[in-house]
Amino acid sequence: MSKSLNRRNFLSGAAKTTATLTLGGSLLYLAGCSKPIQRPDLNLVKDPAGLCDLPKGFRYTVISKAEETMSDGYIVPDYHDGMGCFEGPNGALILVRNHEVPLYFPFDPASPAPDFAYDPTSSGGTTTIWLDDNLAVTRHHLSLTGTIRNCSGGKTPWQTWISSEEPGSPGWGSGWQMGKRHGYNFEVDPLKPLQLAQPLKAMGRFNHEAVAIDPASGIAYQTEDSSYGCFYRFLPTKAGHLAEGGTLQALKFVDGAINHTTKHPLQSGEKYLCTWVTVAEPDPEDNTVHLQAQKKGAAIFVRGEGLAVHDDGIYFSCTTGGAAGMGQIFKYVPGPGHGNGTIELVYEAKVRSILEKPDNITLNQWGDLIICEDNSLDTQCLVGLTPEGKIYYIAANTQSEWSGACFSPNGKILFANIHKGPGMTLAIQGPWEALRQTA
């Protein structure tokens, strides 16, 4: 317990220092800029508590907040990010939630549980939350530790969670005070207590964002949060056993003139033939996975983020892609035998007040994309995008970006995170089918 309390005090002080630095930069920025763009009427009911505006007939429950004490005595980290929902025994719901704990200057706080840490000098990871029928927390514990900046990841068909590191610039090179190399995926079993996790090195060492696994083939698709990133797939040696290795590849357009999906505008709705190139060294010393791929003709996708698998293809977002730099959403459809396929631009944000900077995504039972915004507007929204391209709004807050959107197995509850300030996990319920009709 004493370790947890000491860590809490340390993180609180570090967070205040970080907040001061961030606030100073923000004030300088705002001094020379206009106010954030105001959105039009989103058809949401204002929350009297000022936390989360929702459509009429909807309600939210706060499940968990940063700085609370968990069942294992550790403190809930801040920076809530990607998340998956699993069905547990006896009707329980289990959430596995990432924590994008940043690299604090001049050092990253140590893991609160060093005996189980991949890297004892690092404090990122995941927490696991068990919920009963009334959404009351029955168990809450640390489930991965010793990692850095766990952004997103994805749920596997065999019911585990892949948590992905996005180390950023400080995560590369020997000058940073870290005990081990970072930039990997880690697998977390929602049914198990804290385990000593091992990096899935064959899946690549880069600025990971999300992972989505095609249940038909076992192929894992991956996005890279970088302005010069690629779109990847991992062909496991044995389907369902990522730790046993495999081959990392990056997408290349058959039309060699298309090597940048923003500088070479794609026509919405047009299907472009594509193939894959193999990355020779998926675990390099430096941040060179994308460079290796691009030397072989792989295309650049600007800040790849969320991923979701549907019957008709694999959807992914690029937060600042497109001519306006406000975001794109693509769909990749594998070819016969999961060989060469096609890629299609499904949506490109062009009007800032409607949708800006799509980040994490998920799908509901009707095939609508549920999009977490990370924008520069006065509100951050959870946005629904129908297959017909119509937009509707699910939730809005003025505190921080949305992240980790995922549905309960029965599709009735949408869980989502407000990223920070403090980070918190919400459960949103209401008449979903009626809401779609407002699009």
The gist of it:
This protein is mainly beta and 439 residues long. The protein contains 3 helices and 24 strands.
State the separation between the terminal residues, measured CA to CA: 50 Å
Largest sheet: 9 strands, antiparallel
Report the sheet-strand fraction: 35-45%
Strand order of the largest sheet: 9-10-11-12-13-17-16-15-14
Oligomer: single chain
Give the uncertain stretches in residue-range form. 1-34
Q: Give the % helix.
A: under 10%
Jot down its keywords.
439 residues, mainly beta, nine-stranded antiparallel sheet, four-stranded antiparallel sheet, 3 helices, 24 strands, globular
Would you write up a description of this structure?
By secondary structure, this protein is mainly beta. The chain has a domain at 35-65 and 357-439. It is 10% helix and 36% strand. The chain has three helices and 24 strands. The chain has a nine-stranded antiparallel beta sheet with strand order 9-10-11-12-13-17-16-15-14, with helices on one face. Strand 9 (208-213) and strand 10 (220-224) form a beta hairpin. It is globular and about 55 Å long. The protein starts with a helix and ends with a helix. The relative contact order is 0.14. The model is unreliable at 1-34 (pLDDT under 50).
